[in-house]
Amino acid sequence: MKDTRPRVTYSNITADFSSVHELLGQRIDAVTQALGKFHPNVIGGQPSGDGQRYEAHSPIDHRMLLGSFISTDKTGVHAAVQAARSASEAWAKKPWQQRIATLRNVAKAIEREKYDLAAVCLLEVGKSRMEAMGEVEEAIDLIGYYCDEMEANNGYVRPLRRALEQESTLDILRPVGVFGVIVPFNFPVALAIGMLTGALLGGNTVVFKPSPLAGLTGSHIARLFQQGGIPDGALNLVCGDAGTGQAMLDHAGIDGFAFIGSHAVGMHILRSVAAGRYNRPVIIEMGGKNPSYVTRHADLDTAAEGVMRSAFGLQGQKCSSGSKVYVQDSVFDAFMQLLLDKSKALHIGNPADQQVFMGPVINEKAGERFVRACEDARREGNIVLGGARLSGGLFDHGVYVQPTIVTGLPAAHRLHKEELFLPFLCAQPFDTLAAAIRDGNDIDYGLTAGVYTTDASELDYFLAHAEAGALYANRASGATTGAWPGVQTFCGWKGSGTTSKGGLGPYYVPQFMREQSHTLMNA
After folding, report:
1. In b/e form, how buried is each residue of 326-357, taking b as 16+ CB within 10 angstroms?
2. What does the pLDDT average to over 239-267?
3. Residue of 191, 3, 252, 240 whose CA lies nearest to 108
4. Which residues, 6 or more positions from 317, have their beta carbon under 8 angstroms from its beta carbon?
5. What pLDDT digit, counting tens, does each position of 487-518 carry?
6. Which H or E run includes 72?
7. Which domains does the chain possess?
8. What's the CA gap between 217 and 296, in Å, rounded?
9. CA dihedral sign of residues 314, 316, 317, 320
10. Are 402 and 315 contacting, i.e. CB atoms less than 8 angstroms apart?
């Protein structure tokens, strides 16, 4: 029977999701009751325990045991690579139409269990209900969009010109081989499924490492791909920490890597891979600073809503989070009052509760980073909202912090330049939009940016001069966040990416393949 409940996206924020909440609440309770189990790795379609066993607890409440997992050692990584290599030829030889059919079956398996998967994501990462549900819906659409694109492009096979009448020529994209896919904690469903789909559709097999903070979600994803018909060995799950990731980088049997995470780790991967006998393809997205601009011609209420949502959704733990806002002098005070009012009204607590917008940050390390940022802000600027870690009740069993807004910092201050991955927003007045955009571009990142204006010339200037791969204008749902498969591409410029082609768009899957031309002399 078709599910008639509304689909949660990152944009339809005013829809009536009461029926979604009803079922999701039930599934959160059921999933919570089933926590605490052992989840082995999956290598060659079989459970594997090569490595050190560890336990993982929920950031919502550190007393909540999510389960136990295996931190994969070099032996386990080698076994996973060998399994992927053994499955590689058969999977690569499958007609692309069959690979599409299999991935579409995976999407159906995810659709059947999407409420459970959203509940797992919520409990493991601390996402709000709507963030978790939206992420799973995004993952389903990712598979569908990438399959549609491959179909529309005839499996990326096309004829070329002929130099001679008796010759026929063809351009074809072929698999690379074995891909290592390394996924961060913050979008453990959508980012994992996006990279896995790109690799598998391209005819590659995969060694898949979820974040050590998201092994439960990774285990569920591996099981759903198996249910969808991915052959044994084509997708191998290896949980673990940085040591597991390094073992993957060091293994010559992995032919390419896909990674989303911090700039520091991304650059380490890039340098490690480049140090080999020859360069292997590396598809990396590495975060952002993501400025937004509010001019005197903006609808200030819409701007305040969008800036607030981008700054504090998922506790600021998105690569697209809006952590810097420039506001024109003449409307600075009015905008800031609206922003403060909206931010003060946010509910902080257990994200399993329907009314909660902000849950915990992921761990103590993030909490310490928040404290340092607040100390720096107090020394050289003004904290106009928040600035403290919360305590009492549930707050004593997780890392919960206030949404924080800072003004008055010097333009070159590190808090204006560095990605913090926290619910921490810096606001700065500007005189001219051109000057503000020059300053907003003066960062190492170039992922997303947003503008609020009803003036066509200001909008045109922003679109022509903002140095980022995803630009948004006048969105109440998010100043710099909310990309959706096939609707917005998500490409990192400068230090935010390595390939100049982003996810969610038409050029993503071909990056997991390599080009070959065929020239045949006809008889």
Report:
1. bbbeebbeebbebbeebbeebebbbbbeeebb
2. 94
3. 3
4. 186, 361, 362, 366, 421, 422
5. 999 999 999 999 889 999 999 999 999 999 99
6. strand 65-72
7. 18-286+500-521 (3.40.605.10), 291-484 (3.40.309.10)
8. 44
9. positive
10. no
pLDDT digits (tens, 9 = 90+) for 466-487: 999 999 999 999 999 999 999 9
How many other CB atoms sit within 10 Å of the CB of residue 270?
A: 17
Please give the structure tokens belonging to residue 41.
Answer: 């790795």
- Confidence (pTM): 0.96
Contacts of 293 (CB under 8 A, 6+ apart): 325, 326, 327, 430, 433, 436, 437, 440, 449, 450, 451, 452, 453, 462
Task: For helices 129-152 and 18-33, give the axis angle rounded to 10 degrees.
Answer: 100
Q: Please give the Cα distance from 320 to 127 (Å, whole number).
A: 16
Beta bridge partners of 493: 446
User: d(Cα 306, Cα 285) in Å, to the nearest integer?
Assistant: 23
* CA nearest to 87, candidates 155, 177, 174, 199: 177
- How many angstroms separate the CA atoms of 1 and 180, rounded? 37
In Å, how far from its chain's centre is CA 139?
10
Residue 56's identity, in one-letter code, is A
Residue 256 backbone dihedrals phi, psi, to 5 degrees: -165, 160
Cα distance between residue 95 and residue 171, in whole Å: 16
Give the number of other CB atoms < 10 A from CB of residue 171: 13
Pairing of strands 513-521, 167-175: antiparallel
